[in-house]
Design brief:
This protein is α/β, with parallel strands linked by helices. The chain folds into three domains: 188 residues, P-loop containing nucleotide triphosphate hydrolases (Rossmann fold, 3-Layer(aba) Sandwich); 78 residues, Helicase, Ruva Protein, domain 3 (Orthogonal Bundle); 61 residues, Arc Repressor Mutant, subunit A (Orthogonal Bundle). It has 16 helices and seven strands. Strand 4 and strand 5 form a beta hairpin. The protein is globular and about 75 Å long.
């Protein structure tokens, strides 16, 4: 006989729980999730690349939670946050007396992560002298603590992340090519927030709910002009910057209304074409205008300014800060068609 509680309240699938903190449904984000689903069940090394603040640690944690190691430890280390002379000890541990100040034995992160997952953030900051030791533990799954000749065997799945261009670092001799190829078994490139602007409304609502609960404040209205300002800002700090600005807006909110926290210097970082269109001013976005309407308006105006040229350095995609394929996909989704000339042919110049 089936257990009633199990039937009525089934245990969530671990793979579903792995993605519950990933907010958005843009094509760019869905592609990332698809890659995570493919690589998570394996033990392969993953290299997550992307700008600062794009959520690399969140994706690393999703890989761990969707893997067979989900019941084991998830250990993380920011390589850029540890002094270079202490990084080796943090990774591999040390014995008592191994160096001045080593007053006790220390277990390193690789040992802590045995049978689990080790997340190395900012892996591009690992100094060249330490890179051969990292390569060895990845290849052989063994290492020695500082001050010890005893070899320790481990079973660790490595997920690394960086916002640096490792290929250029290899060319400059700053990063070992063999280590790069060992890390780059399965690369995942995270899109910048400006490349998935359709996810911004969901992210804003998520952070508003989060911070309003924490602060005990009621925020039940996000004005259209505030959301439009969020959607067209270029977000150089990506999701981390969005999170911080929403927190600021919740603090400043009155009567349940979320204000626009962007100041004048930040509005200078709006998508360039906004400065040349009347649609930039928030008053032009009345409350009845949906975000889809604002998308369509901006894209059409930018295409008109670019002579309906989509690609290239002077095309609409470059002006909007988007890839050519991304803009074409948006045009199809929004039903934006090239204008037809009086002779019944397409306007030339669309590329």
């Amino acid at each position: 006989m089936e257990d009633y509680a199990t039937v009525m309240n089934p245990v969530p699938d671990p793979a579903e729980r792995a993605f519950e903190r990933i907010i958005g449904n843009s094509a760019a984000l869905e592609y990332v999730v698809e890659q995570v689903e493919q690589v998570a069940p394996t033990n392969s090394t993953v290299l997550i690349e992307g700008e600062t603040g794009t959520g690399k640690e969140l994706i690393a944690h999703a890989i761990h939670k969707a893997s067979q190691r989900c019941g084991r430890a998830f250990i993380k280390l920011n390589c850029a946050a540890i002094p270079l002379d202490l990084l080796e000890s943090e990774l591999f541990g040390h014995e008592k007396g191994a160096f001045t100040g080593a007053i006790a034995q220390k277990v390193g992160r690789f040992e802590m992560a045995d049978k689990g997952t080790l997340f190395l953030d900012e892996v591009g900051d690992i100094p060249p002298a330490l890179q051969p030791k990292l390569l060895r533990v990845l290849q052989e799954q063994e290492f020695e603590r500082l001050g010890s000749g005893r070899t320790h065997k481990v079973n660790v799945r490595l997920v690394a992340a960086t916002n640096r261009d490792l290929i250029k670092m290899v060319a400059r001799g700053q990063f070992r090519s063999d280590l790069y190829y060992r890390l780059n078994v399965f690369p995942i490139l995270l899109p910048a927030l400006r490349e998935r602007r359709e996810d911004i409304p969901a992210l804003v609502k998520h952070f508003v709910n989060l911070f309003s609960r924490r602060m005990g404040k009621r925020v039940d209205c996000i004005p259209a002009e505030t959301m439009v300002a969020f959607q067209w800002y270029l977000w150089p700090g990506n999701i981390r910057e969005l999170q911080n600005l929403v927190e600021r807006a919740v603090i400043l909110s009155r009567d349940g209304v979320l204000p626009n926290p962007l100041h004048k210097k930040q509005t200078a970082l709006m998508i360039p074409s906004l400065h040349r269109t009347r649609s930039f001013h928030p008053s032009n976005f009345h409350s009845a205008m949906t975000l889809e309407d604002s998308d369509r308006t901006l894209i059409v105006e930018t295409l008109e300014q670019a002579g309906w040229i989509v690609g290239g350095p002077r095309g609409a995609a470059a002006k909007l800060g988007l890839k050519r394929t991304t803009l074409l996909a948006k045009m199809r989704r929004l039903g934006i068609l090239r204008p037809i000339s009086d002779e019944g042919t397409s306007v030339p110049g669309v590329a």
